[in-house]
Write a structure and sequence with these properties.
Layout lengths: L8 E7 L3 E8 L9 E6 L6 H4 L4 H20 L4 E6 L1 H5 L3 H12 L3 E3 L2 H15 L5 E6 L4 E7 L2 E8 L3 H7 L4 H13 L11 E5 L1 H14 L9 E4 H13 L2 H5 L12 H15 L3 E5 L3 H9 L2 H4 L3 H13 L5 H9 L8 H13 L11 H11 L7 H14 L7 H7 L4 H21 L10 E5 L2 E6 L15 H6 L4 E6 L1
Parallel strand pairs: 1-4, 4-5, 6-9, 9-11, 13-14
Antiparallel strand pairs: 1-2, 2-3, 6-7, 7-8, 10-11, 12-13
Helix pairs in contact: 2-4, 5-12, 7-11, 8-9, 8-11, 9-11, 14-16, 15-16, 16-18, 16-20, 17-18, 18-20
């Protein structure tokens, strides 16, 4: 029996220089959260520099992998399937023959991306998650390194260079000094890299994600979420230098770093080191979104592409998990008078917390605050940095009356300054009051009003509406205290 579903699944097969991956996303969603994600390492680019041809030992496994992915895609009844091939297939003398064999065997179309197309899709992937990104996107694969400028939601100058890990290892004969010379030679010939000075370099690619885990470990960073993890260039260069001097056994002990990534880490660190020294950015940020997510983003209708990625994720979570999903926007409007001077960025983070504030009602009451806090910290949000993620988590934690002295809470909220902590306390306490007043039901809060009068915070409620007949819970005074008032006073009008 076929079950009707609202999902519009979109599949992307990425035939890379080292691995082949199938990702399936929901085309009805703004955010590319994989419904299915599988890869196989085939090493198509091994020996490409010397022979000019695809690795003979990799062609058979690659064809078998593509065949499996096409069969799975058809069984999943996808709305569309895009098969993309990158540097190895593009540059190999027998690349066209390989593509023709795939198309003949499986009755599909393969799009062999040019270097420029690959670079632009990598930039779109970063912009998909961080629309305000400004700097230079660098995507390191097995066969090539793509570099592209981003600003104002658009990409600009772009270039591709044969500096992928497999190609660079071969061309340098695994000699570190020679590899450094090759990378420097290529980068020095790109004059517009200077445009990134003082900005941000966005690092994309699996090898650099492994480096991000090492940076998180070395800095004792409180969150282990990779996306939008950022650090100063000076700290990045110090840790990169440390990676270069570590033994393989030491690198294998870093939490979250896959053993298969370890052999390539020194070379990946070298490439990133040279990029940072050439560009001289102020900051390095790691993105888990790249070419595949760029292709996904490209297929979305304009209205979805224009949506805020963070608020889109929060709305979807509210829709699937909250009792009254429409309540989030009302909560945001109701507490707005408490934040008369907030910047748009702060309002956006508060809006996200309002949207998800009822999404964890089904958790066990004894652990509800803790579970909500941890889930928000680890959800696949987009367009949000680590400090902002911690702010959303703390706001929801306070909404559920969590104890801020909890060690895991203190660790995460160490990312927040005093002004941010105060905003979280006000918003979290306001959410607690609002949900108690309204029972989470929509259209009731608009009948009430919060007013600061001297040393008191006054809550006006309609005198003739029994829905607002409740005991004055002393926990409500927490909102008053967070605003510098002595108490919360109920007033029937």
């Amino acid at each position: 029996m076929k079950i009707k579903r609202d999902l519009v699944p979109i599949g992307i097969v990425d035939i890379g220089s080292n691995s082949i991956r199938l990702c399936v996303y929901d085309g009805n969603a703004r955010v590319p959260v994989p419904l299915f994600n599988e890869k196989a390492v085939c090493g198509l680019a091994e020996g490409l520099g010397a022979s000019g041809r695809l690795n003979p030992a990799g062609i058979g496994p690659a064809l078998a992998t593509v065949g499996r992915f096409v069969a799975l895609s058809r069984a999943m009844d996808l709305a569309r399937l895009d098969i993309l091939a990158t540097a190895a297939v593009r540059d190999a003398a027998d690349g066209a023959e390989f593509v023709a064999e795939i198309e003949r065997r499986f009755q599909v179309t393969v799009n062999v991306l040019s270097g420029g197309e690959e670079a632009r899709l990598a930039a779109l992937g970063v912009l998909c998650g961080t629309p305000e990104a400004e700097g230079i996107v660098c995507d390191l694969g097995g066969g090539s390194l793509e570099l592209v400028t981003v600003k104002g939601g658009r990409f600009g100058e772009h270039v591709t260079r044969p500096l992928g890990l497999l190609r660079l290892a071969e061309s340098s004969a695994n000699d570190r000094m020679e590899a450094g010379r090759i990378v420097e030679q290529h980068l020095s010939a790109i004059p517009w890299l200077a445009e990134g000075r003082g900005g941000t370099v966005y690092a994309v690619g699996g090898a650099w994600r492994a480096l991000a885990r090492i940076c998180i470990s070395q800095l004792h960073h409180p969150l282990t979420v990779l996306d939008n993890f950022g650090l100063d260039t000076r700290d990045a260069l110090r840790i990169i230098d440390l990676v270069s001097s570590q033994s393989r056994k030491s690198l294998e002990k870093v939490p979250g770093v896959a053993k298969k990534r370890v052999p390539g880490l020194p070379l990946a660190a070298l490439v990133l080191d040279r990029v940072l020294r050439t560009v001289e950015p102020r900051r390095l940020a790691f993105s888990i979104y790249g070419m595949r997510e760029g292709q996904f983003f490209k297929t979305l209708p304009p209205e979805l592409r224009a949506a805020d990625p963070l608020l889109s994720v929060c709305r979807q979570l509210a829709l699937t998990s909250s009792r009254f999903p429409e309540h989030g926007d009302e909560l945001m409007a109701w507490m707005a008078p408490l934040f008369p001077n907030d910047l748009p960025h702060h309002a956006r983070i508060r809006h996200a917390a309002c949207l998800v504030s009822d999404a964890f009602w089904g958790e066990h009451p004894d652990y509800r605050a803790e579970q909500a806090f941890l889930r928000v910290l680890r959800l696949p949000f987009m367009g949000v940095g680590h400090a902002d993620r911690a702010a959303i988590a703390l706001t929801v934690f306070i909404r559920y009356q969590g104890n801020e002295d909890d060690p895991q809470v203190l660790r995460a909220t160490s990312l927040l300054d005093e002004a941010a902590l105060r905003r979280c306390r006000i918003a979290g306490s306001a959410l607690r009051l609002a949900h108690t007043l309204s029972g989470g039901a929509p259209n009731l809060l608009r009948l009430t009003r919060l007013i600061a009068e001297g040393k008191s915070l006054v809550l006006e409620v309609p005198a003739n509406n029994p829905a607002f007949t409740l005991d004055n819970d002393r926990t409500f005074d927490r909102l008053a205290r967070s605003l510098g008032c002595e108490s919360l006073v109920f007033r029937a009008v």
